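B., you asked whether I could sanity-check this one before it goes into the benchmark set. Here's the sequence:
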Amino acid sequence: MPMIRPFTEGDTQAVMNLWYDTTVHDQDFIPRASWDAVRPRVAEHYLPASDTWVACDEEGAILGFISLLEDLIGALFVRRACQSRGTEQALIATQQGTVHPVCGGL
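And here's what the prediction gave me:
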């Protein structure tokens, strides 16, 4: 089970790399240049404006993150190699009671 902790400014590079790698891979129908253009805004505006939590392995490497905008999940990203292994559920579970159940009960 991953350790879940609040995002710190020191996590920015790892979180942004995870966001970028996952986004480019999963949304390959959008040109990479579009994601390159958006990346600075995500790092400089979106992350600071959101309540972000990270999932880490025993060595402290970031496996995934969840970002909340008020009471909604704005982002949920997990390394491809770690998907469907409980990281997503662990991130969501830490936010139960703080997020709005948009698509069923959280």
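One thing to flag: Strands lie at 3-6, 51-56, 62-69, 72-78. Otherwise nothing jumped out at me.
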